[in-house]
Amino acid sequence: xxxxxxxxxxxxxxxxxxxxxxxxxxxxxxxxxxxxxxxxxxxxxxxxxxxxxxxxxxxxxxxxxxxxxxxxxxxxxxxxxxxxxxxxxxxxxxxxxxxxxxxxxxxxxxxxxxxxxxxxxxxxxxxxxxxxxxxxxxxxxxxxxxxxxxxxxxxxxxxxxxxxxxxxxxxxxxxxxxxxxxxxxxxxxxxxxxxxxxxxxxxxxxxxxxxxxxxxxxxxxxxxxxxxxxxxxxxxxxxxxxxxxxxxxxxxxxxxxxxxxxxxxxxxxxxxxxxxxxxxxxxxxxxxxxxxxxxxxxxxxxxxxxxxxxxxxxxxxxxxxxxxxxxxxxxxxxxxxxxxxxxxxxxxxxxxxxxxxxxxxxxxxxxxxxxxxxxxxxxxxxxxxxxxxxxxxxxxxxxxxxxxxxxxxxxxxxxxxx
Length: 418
Known about the structure:
Elements: H1 2-39, H2 50-59, H3 65-74, H4 85-89, H5 94-103, H6 109-117, H7 127-133, H8 139-151, H9 157-166, H10 177-181, H11 191-200, H12 206-214, E1 226-227, E2 242-243, E3 253-255, E4 266-268, H13 269-284, E5 287-291, H14 300-322, E6 336-343, H15 357-362, E7 368-372, H16 377-380, E8 385-391, H17 394-403, H18 407-416
Parallel strand pairs: 1-2
Antiparallel strand pairs: 3-4, 5-6, 6-8, 7-8
Helix pairs in contact: 2-3, 7-8, 8-9, 11-12
């Protein structure tokens, strides 16, 4: 009698489970149909991802439909949603998963499986972890984000991810911190210098601060000097923080043709070939370009004599504004040239005061940059020199012109490397 009762009870239990499972299955199918009917009319909808859209919706029930489509379309793999305890048991370390599931009541089965896949079972489930759990982040990154968010609850999720991505989670987020890290040409390695300079110059914009520090102009000129890195080739920099040795002479020096130099100036051959192209193009615009004196390549000793003259006339401070100290001149690289522009007969476009305008505007097409611009004196350390042009190659020259930056900043951000 008892055995019959037990069998009957088990039968009823099995029937109930089957009935519940069937009902849940039908309910899920209906829910899916209803969801798909609403999302399929959207423009970016892709039929082959219908199940992924639905699963993503189950994981993020508050997301807008267009957000779901956008997020899923960007994903390469399948989106999986687990809704059964059996899914939990299928995990290789199911014992740990089950323990986590019962110890963290707010976590769904899907949450637990996701937490397990990202090796985060040692973290307690809470709103902070949930915030990052389904973002496209590795477990190690989520761990750092959760830790950072709990220390700095005032920082938004997107900002936290960016901070961690930059490797700046150990930096205290001061009032200037967020504005700096989103600034163009920001370099994480210089964050402490940015913050220090910003705190001392609060009237400056974040961009001005980044620009100054990237040019090393937050330091006194001719301090912390280092040898110029000759391995950078045509993009070597030689300024008030980088120097060339006394005996340095660039390879491939050639004598400038007499059509473009009265005094036998010399230039590095690649720069010279580009210079000739620019001179010929200028002629088509009724402008004649010629090297000013012999101011192509200058030796260390020549520069020393020139600087000495300016120092005698203007004093050290005045000389530093218009002339480089020996070893620090771009002319020693052979890649810089000082020019004169002569307006040819028949040219009614240019007045004497604006005779360099064509060169300033078009030099990039030949790989040159207008090196010492007006308004950039605090960055380069030199007064404006409309006549001084530096060869860097066409691609770099165009970038510098389009972004209105100095070669000093370009070098620090793109060439120097950290």
